[in-house]
Amino acid sequence: MAKLENKQVIFKNFIDRAPQETDLELKVSDIGPRAPSGSGAFLVKNLYLSCDPYMRGRMRDFHGSYIPPFVPGQVVEGFGVSKVVHSDDPNFKPGDLVSGLTGWEEYSLIKKTERLRKIQLDDIPLSYHVGLLGMPGFTAYAGFYEVCSPSRGEHVFVSAASGAVGQLVGQLAKLHGCYVVGSAGSNQKVDLLKNKLGFDEAFNYKEEQDLNAALKRYFPQGIDIYFDNVGAEMLDAALLNMKIHGRIAVCGMVSQHSLSDPKGIHNLFNLVMMRIRMQGFLQSDYLHLYPRFLEHVIGYYRQGKIVYVEDVSEGLASAPAALAGLFSGKNVVRRDMLPNMCKHCTSQSISVNGSKPSHRL
Q1: pLDDT digits (tens, 9 = 90+) for 148-171
Q2: Largest CB tally within 10 Å, which of 31, 51, 262, 351?
Q3: Are residues 127 and 139 in the same domain?
């Protein structure tokens, strides 16, 4: 049978800085139209790919992390939504929609199926399965409820609050009865947090000369919960403003583009004085909660209690710019697709094969 033309995004080589478009390249290869007999694998057509900050860590030559680095010269790997084309696995049939790890390419041969999830077509946009209902959404859910242990009325601070994780953390905190403040990197994102996502307050950290003073302004009585997505100076300032028995969930440190020269934290003694619990976590530690997460978040979405905002780039050729944009604030929502929304980012995904992006508010 004739082979399929397969566009692929290739990782060129390890880097020690913020990603740039030139770190990836688009190539075209061929792939067989069927999964090999006896392989237990299946062939998928990728529809949406998630563009996530953790991918930066996989672009460095470091093998001591929870997930291995990308391989130079090979296809980039990430979370995606795909449609089964041909299957040698009886549990997956042609036409099935699945979400999980796949390649940044038009077609992928999936051999590891243990963490794939079947998707049932319903009123939820397909692209949400790499955002709201995917790894970022579940990270927000597990981190907030399991690590932060929230109580009604507590004061919550979320950094990188307009991102794929932060926007849901803030909304879950509001639904839980908390007071919520978010930080972001532009005034447009601040407007998004306050006027679309329901945060009580938000501020542009780039306009603050003193982050400690900024947090004291928004939390005069202190912070109960800090959901940290950035690390560095913001974490240092939050440590000075935590309440006794406060909790800090360390989700990510997007500020640390290069771990070969990381920035130190100076205020760790506050952990002792204020009896603060600071904990790093991975969403994969809580996979047993995933069914409950889906039930709760889908319910909130259908009831109109959760808003989710995406930035969808169309076509694999846009993938290098989409990844680089995560670290420079350049990801945007097209105004012709979402005319009432500000033009700056949120959850970033890539539409692979002309799948029509779907945005809802």
Answers
A1: 999 999 999 999 999 999 999 999
A2: 51
A3: no
